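Newbie here. two chains, one complex. Structure please?
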Amino acid sequence: MKKFIIITTALTMIFLSIFLFFGPENPKLISSNYTVFAERVLYWGTQGQDVKTVQDKLSRWGFYDGKADGIYGARTYRAVRKFQAKHGLKVDGVVGLATARALGLPHAVGATASGGVNRSADEYLLARAIHGEARGEPYVGKVAVAAVVLNRTRSSSFPNTIAGVIYQPLAFTAVADGQINLTPNMDSIKAARDALNGWDPTYGCLYYWNPATATSKWIWSRKVTLKIGKHWFGI
Amino acid sequence: MKNRKHLIPPAILALLLVAALVWGYNQNQIRKQHEITLENYYQRLFFDVKKHIENVQVNLSKALVANSKERNVLLFSQIVSEATSAHSKLGQMPLTHAEVANTEKFLNQAADYSTFLIQRHLQGEEITEEQREALNGLQGNSARFNGELENIQGSLSDQNFLLGSMSNNQGGEIEEANANIFQTSLVQLDKEFSKTPELIYDGPFADQMVNRKPVGLTGNDVSLEDAAKIAQEFLGEVSIGGIEAFEAGEHVDESRIPAYTFNVFSQSQNEDMAIYLGVSKKGGKVIWMANPRPVTGGKMSVKDAEERAKRYLQDKGLFNMEPNYSLKYDGGVLFTFTNTQDDVIIYPDLIKVKVALDTGEIVGFDASAYYMNHKDRTITDPHLDQGGARAKVKENFVIDSTRLAIIPKGKDEVLCYEFKGKHNQGDFIVYINALDGSEEQILQIIQDENGTLTF
C-alpha cells in the first residue's frame, strides 16, 4: 500500500510539474501563420514551414483536405491548382508571387529593382484589422472599416501610418483583445485591397462604433453620417 | 494498514494545493515581469516625448531669431524631425484618441508647417509677417505643452506613478488617482490646443486640405427616390432583385461627399453578395460602385478588359478619359483612367474601373477623386519648351516618353512636363514645372507581373 501512495505521489508530481514549468503555451505559436514567409517559389516536392502555411490556408478555405505536413505533394498540387482556377490565376500548381499574394501571404517581392518596396504588408495588416473588427459585417462594411483606418492616416489628429493607426492604444477593441492576430479570410483581404485602391464607402469618415456595444461616452459626441450593418460611421 | 488508506485523498489534495500555490506564484511573477516591461516602455515614451517637445520649442525660438534662410532651413528640418518623433511616440502611449486628438494635430501641423516654410525658403522667399505670427503661436503652444509635461514629470517622481496602470482597467484606486493627474493635465492641454487659430498654409495636414469639398459636383440636390433610380439605371442590364438604401446618419450633409448609399441585390444572388453603390446628393452622380462577387477562371486578356473599361466610361458619359495604369488582383484588373484636355493629361481627375476577367463585367467603379477635383480648366501655355525642361532633369536619366500633365500640388494644380524613364534600372516619372522649370515631383514606379504601382 505504501508503494501505491508513493507511486501516486510521484505521478502527481510529474503530472503537475509539466503544468508548472511549461506554463502557458508560447503565444508565438499562434502567430506562426503570418510571420515568416520565404522568398522562394513553392512547387511539387518543396518542403518547409512555408508549405505548411499554404496548406493551412488552403484547408481553411476548403481547397485542401490533407494534413498540413509541410510537404508539397500531389494533394497540395491539386489544391493549389483548384485555388488558382477559382481566383483567375495562371493554373500551374506553383505558388509564385501572384498566387502567394492571392493567398494573402506576405510574400516578399522577387529580386527586382524595387528592392522590396511593395504594398503587401499594408494589405495584410489592414486585412487583419478588418477581420478582427468587422468579420460578420457585409462586404461594404468591411471596406468601410478599412477606409476609416486609411482616412485616419491622412487626418492631422491621428498617427500617420497604417500600423500607427491600428495599434494606437485603446483605439480598436480587436487589437486590445488580440483578435487582430487571427488569420484573415479571403473577403477581408479583398476588402483591404479595395480600400487601398481608393474605395471609400464612408466618404471620409474617421470613426465608427457599434451602438450596441460602444463603451466610450465620448464616441457619442461624434457626428453620424452613415450606418452600415452594425456599425455607425461618423466624423 | 486500513486506517492509512483514508489518508490518501487528503495527501493528494494537499499536494494539489501546494502545486496550485506554486503555479499561482509563477504566474504572478510572469505577470509582474510583463508589467515592468510595459511600464519601462511607457516611461521611455514619456521621456522621449518630453525631449522631442523641448527640442521643438527650442528650435522654434531659434528660428524666430535666425536671420538667414540657410539657418532657418536647418532649424525647420530639425523641427520636422522632432515633431514627427513626438507625434509618433505620443500615438503609442496609453491614451485615448479623445484625450490627445488636438495635441496630435498640433504636432502634425507643426511638422507640416515647417516643411511648407522650408519649401518657401528653397524657392528663395522670405518669411512673411503672418508666418512669423504663426511661428510665434506654435512656439507658445510647444512651451505650454512642455510645461505640462514638466508638471507630469514632477508627479511621476513624487508618487511613484505608473503609466501602465492606465491601459488596464483592473488598477486599484491609487493607480486610478494617478492616472487622473496624468489625464486631466493632458486633456486640459488638449482643450487649449483646440482653441488655437487655424494655420493657413499649403500641406497635406492643413485644415483647408483636410476639409476640402467636392468641386466637380454641380446642380440641384436629388431625392432618395431619384437617387435609387439613378443607381438602377447605372447598373443597366443587371437584373435587380431589390434595392435598399443604407440608413444615413443625421449629419450626412457634413461628410466629404454627401451621398446616398445603396445595397442592390440581383435575383440570382443572395443578399450577402450584393452590389453596392453611392450616389451623390448634389447632382445625383454615381460616386462609386463595388460588386464583390468572386471571380473564377478568368480568361480575358488585359487588353480586352481595357477596351471594356473604356467603353463603359463612354457609356456613362465620361469622355476624354485615358487609361494609364493597371493592377491585376482577385481575378480582376483595376484600370486607372485620367481626364485629358488638349492632349494634356489631368491627373487630379482620376477614375478607377475594375473589370472581372471571367465575363468582362465591370465589378468596380470609383470616381470620388474625379468629382472632388473636376472643373473647367483653362490650361496656360508653358513658358518653357520641352528641350528647356529636359535640361532640368538629371542628365543620365533615360527618357522613354514626354508629355504635358497637370498634377496636384497641395490644394492647387500645376502644369508640368512629365518625363517617364529609367535610372539605375528603376522606373521613375519626373515632373518639371512647365512655367518656372522647378522639379515638382518624382514618382517611383514598381512593376511586376500584376501591374504597376506608384510610390
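Moderator note: Chain B touches chain A through 92 residues (CB under 8 Å). Chain B is about 45% helix and 25% strand. Thread marked as resolved.
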